[in-house]
Specification:
- It is a single chain.
- By secondary structure, the protein is mainly α.
- The chain has nine helices and no strands.
- The protein is globular and about 60 Å long.
Length: 247
């Protein structure tokens, strides 16, 4: 299997995890200092809103909702798993399931109210944005999977740029619809990158500990996949039944 490059050297990855975890904690702690800027951005946003742009952003919000991304992850990971890309399937499924749980925990701990002038209905707490963390983890995990099989540096760079572009669009979307403050998006970006690299580290540890074609790995992967599937299905059904799930 081709290595995706020096970016995923374990020591560098640990450094990235530490940096973005610290950055997230700092943004969380000093959010009060950003409140005036949050207000300025929130008040400015209506000046660029328009009906066509609002329709597009509502579509983006639906597509990158936490529940939508968990469902997409379940489908894609199932396909990868049954195509014998078991480790990759587990990476995507566990990364997204962990992301949903992590965002929920942070929201409940911080309990930050949302802006009152949102263009769409949004329940629950505001910080951090589940859409932003989800888009980073989902797109980043898929990019990592693709990078493992593509040697061409230009193709790898193009995928990386696409991940950044999509995540940036989702971040703008949350601010445009006035369902999140700027600091919600900033903190979510830090948290998403931290969790993405943490998930990839766990994936690499799994690869080092067990060969993907070994009988032991196949047995463990089935257990983990079934467990991840049950949790993901629960999250989707729980949300579709009318209960709130953080986004």
């Amino acid at each position: 299997m081709n290595k995706p490059g020096l970016l995923f050297n374990k020591k560098k990855q640990l450094f990235v995890c530490a940096v973005f975890l610290i950055a997230f904690l700092l943004v969380t702690y000093f959010r009060g200092s950003l409140h005036s800027f949050d207000i300025q951005v929130n008040v400015w946003i209506p000046s660029i809103q328009s009906s066509p742009l609002t329709i597009i952003n509502k579509g983006i919000a639906t597509g990158f909702d936490t529940i939508s991304l968990v469902l997409f992850s379940l489908i894609i990971s199932g396909y990868l798993f049954f195509k014998n890309y078991r480790a990759e399937g587990l990476l995507l499924l566990s990364a997204m399931g962990g992301d949903a749980l992590l965002v929920w925990v942070v929201k409940e701990l911080v309990q930050s109210p949302r802006p009152l002038n949102s263009l769409v209905a949004a329940s629950g707490f505001s910080y951090p944005s589940g859409h932003v963390t989800g888009s980073i983890v989902f797109c980043g995990s898929l990019a990592f999977i693709v990078w493992q099989h593509w040697k061409n540096k230009k193709e790898q760079a193009s995928i990386g740029i696409l991940v950044v572009a999509v995540s940036s669009v989702v971040g703008f979307n949350r601010i445009y619809l006035n369902v999140h403050w700027f600091s919600d998006v900033l903190g979510a970006g830090m948290l998403g990158i931290f969790w993405l690299f943490s998930a990839i580290l766990a994936f690499q540890f799994l690869q080092d500990r067990a060969k993907s074609d070994s009988e032991r790995f196949r047995s463990i992967s089935w257990i983990l996949f079934i467990l991840g599937t049950i949790i993901s299905v629960f999250i989707v059904v729980y949300s579709l039944s009318g209960h709130y799930f953080p986004s």
